[in-house]
Amino acid sequence: MFGFGLPELMIVMVILLVVFGPAKLPQLGSALGGAIKNFKKGAEDPMVIAEGGKAKDDGGSPAP
Prior knowledge:
Layout: H1 6-20, H2 25-44, H3 46-50
């Protein structure tokens, strides 16, 4: 689709290294991983999020 190969990926990595520095890259990777994890969690069951975090099956009893 975008045509990213190994040379383009290496150029992007070098630019990121220059801009953010070697100390900040692990933090950025961790933050990106956490964001992807939360996105996948939210995409799995959007009704849980819409209902405020309640479980799908609460036993069938109505709320008080």
